[in-house]
Amino acid sequence: MATHHGTWGYRDRFGDSFGRTYFRRFGPGVVSSVGVGTYLGDPSTEVDDRYHDALVTAFESGINLVDTAINYRCQRSERVVGRALRDADVERSDVVVATKGGFLPFDGSRPENPGRYIQERFVDTGLVDTADLAHGSHAMTPAVLDELLDRSLDNLDLDTVDCYYVHNPETQLDTRSRSAVYDQLETAFELLERRRTAGDIGAYGVASWNAFRVPTDHEQYLSLPEVVSRARTAAETAGNEEVGLKAIQLPFNVVMADAFTTKSHPTDDGPVSALEYAHEEGLSVFTSASIAQGSLARELPDDIEAELSGDSTVQRAINFARSAPGVTSALVGASRRDHVAENVAAGTFDPIGAGAFDAVFE
């Protein structure tokens, strides 16, 4: 797993090449504020090979964070992450590896009949009950997460993942009440607390799309204070003094800044945004869709672009995300070496200060 010695040694190896606060605290050590995502791309050998080369380049250039999920590209993304870790000139202890469980994965390719595949591989085998499924493919019962975590460890060829996310729990809100989803999260967290004690994960988190950045009346809203409360209860139930919930992941970019602007999480002093609440609670925030899956590679709003440093629109978009108060790292999908090189170079520029960032929204 990633360690204090490994990640700080990695920082010493590469840190002088980057701007202020490029490496930031996470877990026992530090992590680069630009990370590599592995979501996009066909489930093919050609794309596997491109990802492999891109990831090796990233690990050998100053990015020590990779984010994946068991369902990404039919489990191929996890497998190529494991291969790249073995081949890169870095130690396992240098690199923070995060993955996710919740969506039931295909294996290698998309089947002709996805519904039948889920039925035969997951329902008929007794792993999941149809009553626990949302959209026919999402489940987060302890039994499912336990099995998916084991499969992820096998795919990655690792003994431990540094952060394991419950993947898009708001998906379950389409089939059950909000209180029932909180109950599901609590039992999921109990399982993850036990897997943390066993050394299979370093920490856990919640990766979301809508849940934490929408108003309270939105059908997919989840309260961060309630999620944190459920994690505390889960830790107590598991007999752990320290709570293992350490991170959230959510989309954040120039055109999706809701996590900063939407104050939907209750506190004693009034509602605050997801980023503010996470900062107050000591949760690390990892941003997905940092360049809006490529759409911000072409153009940024003029008034915002003028505030940002970078040699390209992509770099300025990345630096917007990593400049947001409370953000630990901005994740950017990259399946090509040249994309990695451009993304890494974004970190050579200093992020804008909190005051300048606030001024963008005034």
From TrEMBL:
Matches recorded under CDD domains: AKR_unchar (cd19099)
Domain NADP-dependent oxidoreductase: 34-351
Source species of the chain: Halogranum rubrum
Pfam families reported in the protein's UniProt record: Aldo_ket_red
Parts of the chain that traverse the membrane: none
Protein name as catalogued: Predicted oxidoreductase
